[in-house]
Amino acid sequence: MDWVEKKNADGEAPSVIDRYFTRWYRADMKGKPCEDHCVLQHSNRLCVVSLAETHPILQEGRTVKSINYQISNCCSRLNNKVSGKSKRGAQFVTDFAPLCRITCSDETEYTIYSCIRGRLLEVNENILETPNLLLEKPSTEGYIAIILPKFEESKSITENLLTREEFERVVTKRSLSQPP
């Protein structure tokens, strides 16, 4: 059974993610085939950025060697310190702002992007100590970051993202065009 069919085949109640979050996708991020990202949007506007089920890190049985939130010499996502109700100190990110770089044991490197505009509220420091969370629980404990879009943009941030159905069509089309 492929990942598209696993929705709720066993008749269990939907997960917390399925109940309270809307899944949005960005396929082939920055033109790189299969580098798909997932944005889980909560009804309170918070967005959780994670790897899509089809990302090469999750598909090809890779092992994560390291995760680095140091984006450039002068920008580390780990230095993001947010305080107060108005989220002072949060770094502002755009759609294509890098959040982290993941290096696999075969030295393949992937850059994970924010996919949406907003304030970076949190990066998941737990995956630095336990990188396997990224592989085992990408939508929950293995998430990359949490972003809060501006209130006035909260409806429009998903314009450049794909719904689950649109994403499934992209993945199906992609698998049909690849040689066996």
UniProtKB/TrEMBL annotation:
UniProt keyword terms in alphabetical order: Cell projection, Nucleus
GO molecular function, one term: actin filament binding
Signal peptide (UniProt feature, chain positions): none
InterPro entries: Abitram (IPR039169), GCV_H/Fam206 (IPR033753), Single_hybrid_motif (IPR011053)
Similarity comment: family membership: Belongs to the ABITRAM family.
PANTHER family linked to this entry: PROTEIN ABITRAM
Protein name: Protein Abitram
Lineage: Eukaryota, Metazoa, Chordata, Craniata, Vertebrata
